[in-house]
Amino acid sequence: MIFKQLFDNKSSTYTYIISSGKGREALIIDPVIENTKEYLNVLKELNLKLVKVIDTHIHADHISGLNELSKQTSCSKIMGSHSASEVIDIRVKDNEKIKIENIELISMYTPGHTDCSYSFFMKDRVFTGDTLLINGTGRTDFQNGSSYDAYDSLFKKLLKLPEKTFVYPAHDYNGKKYSTIENEKKNNPRLQVNSPEEYAEIMRNLKLSNPKMMDIAVPANKKGLTLKDIAK
C-alpha cells in the first residue's frame, strides 16, 4: 500500500494520498489548494491515477484543493451528505463504503466541530478530520458546531473503534503525525470527562479567536474555488 502524509505549514493541515500500489488508482483526503502541484507530482512519480478526492468537512482555515484536483484530473469529489458544498459529485451517508482498487474506506458521520464533519475508517486507521485531534478535539463554536454532538461523535463512535486503530487527523500544531485510539483515551485531556455537560463546559471555556482565513475559506469551500478563481 502507498500511504503519503503531506503537511501544509501555513494551515498545519495534513493531506493524505492513498493507493494500493504503484500504477494503481488513488484517493486524496483533505487537500490544500496551494499544494495542488505537489500532490500532482507525487501522483506522477508513483504513476497513480487519482479517482477520488475527499474533504472531511468544510474547512475554515484554508481553501480546499478538492475542486482544483477534480478540474485537473477528472476525479470524483466526495463529502458527507450534510455538506453545504455546491460542487460535490458523491455525497456519502453514515456507514457507506468508498472504494478504489483494493482500498475501502467506511464513512462515519461525526458532527460537532461542524455539522458536516465526517471521519473515514480504513482497516487499521481512521481519518478524523477536526473531530478528534492528537491530544485535542476540534472546536465547536462555529459552522453549526455543537459540543454535545461532538461528545457523541467522540465517545459513541470514534472511541468505540479498536484501541490499536491509528488516528490520522486533518491538523496538528505540535509536530505529531498520528496517534491511536488507545493513546487518545488515556492521554487526551479533553476526553477525561464523565458526561456531555463536562465536555461542553471545557469547550465553552476555550475562548479561541476565529481562524484568520475563516471569512474567505468557508465561502470559498462552499463554492469550490479553483486556482483560476483565486487568481482573479
What would you say this structure looks like, in words?
Helices cover 25% and strands 28% of the residues. By secondary structure, it is an alpha/beta fold. It has a single domain (2-209), classed as Metallo-beta-lactamase, Chain A (4-Layer Sandwich). The strands form three sheets. It has a six-stranded mixed beta sheet with strand order 1-2-3-4-5-6, with helices on one face. β7 (97-100) and β8 (103-109) form a beta hairpin. α3 crosses α5. The longest helix is centred in the first third of the chain and has 10 residues, at 36-45. It is globular, with a radius of gyration of 17 Å.
Keywords, separated by commas or semicolons:
single chain, 232 residues, alpha/beta
